[in-house]
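Input for the complex:
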Amino acid sequence: MPELAEVAHACARWKTGLNQRVQAVLINPRSRVFRECQINSLYENLPKSTLRYAQAHGKQMLFGFSGNLWLGAHLGMTGSLDIQATEYAPSKHDALVLRQPRQSLVFRDPRQFGRIRFEKGKEKPEWWKSLPVPMLHLDFRAELIRSALKRHAKRPIKALLLDQRYFPGMGNWMADEVLWRARIHPACKSGDLEEGLRLALFRQILFVCRGAMRTVGSHGGDPPSGWLFHQRWKDGGICPKSNCLLVRDTIGGRTSCWSPALQVMN
DNA sequence: ATACCTGTTTCCCG
DNA sequence: CCGGGAAACAGGTA
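Predicted:
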């Protein structure tokens, strides 16, 4: 479930290794997650370095190591970060294992849509510095949403919510959750939203992000009970607010779930 | 066997 | 040039 909160929790797991040296680096060179980085550079630079920095931003993560080394990680669809014993033997879908004195840091990704970046530099990498305003930052304001809706007026709102340039960390289930709470039909054209619904959208984005961080983000558990999340994949799923039968269809290229009683097209 | 899938990039179209 | 949408990526699961 690598969306905002799950990514934050994955990052927190690797924080276990902060201020510890990397003793050895194990790589599965055939994994596509290395498609944009030099595997040799990982082998040459990471051993004997110390993990000094670990931060998540939306679905992106950045890990800093002594020696001006930066390792970027994106979990794609099925990636995960785990902690294992120091002597852990990599399994089939493990792409990267960093052995440390007290544990191994493991990046695993069966479907390999994830991505590892690696670079050397005094400053944090350019791609990291140019990431958009986080949804839970004070600078993430209603005006920002308004301009995005205006610019992409013809796109279904569901598709726009998944656009990481505006809503970094938003994923499929979070977007459905937000639209359900704001009572907006996922296929509604972004430009058609009136001021009242725009404000509802903004508020519910904050609500869902905060709620997800409090639950999934801090304990790795499920989102709060009563959320659409718990019903959205089941056949015969029931809207927790209206008790009507939920509907699923592909909107903006992704399977979407909504409550026909609450979310209507205008 | 078939048809899914919590994501992103690339390519094609207007 | 831009915006929008479909396909492609790959393997596990139902």
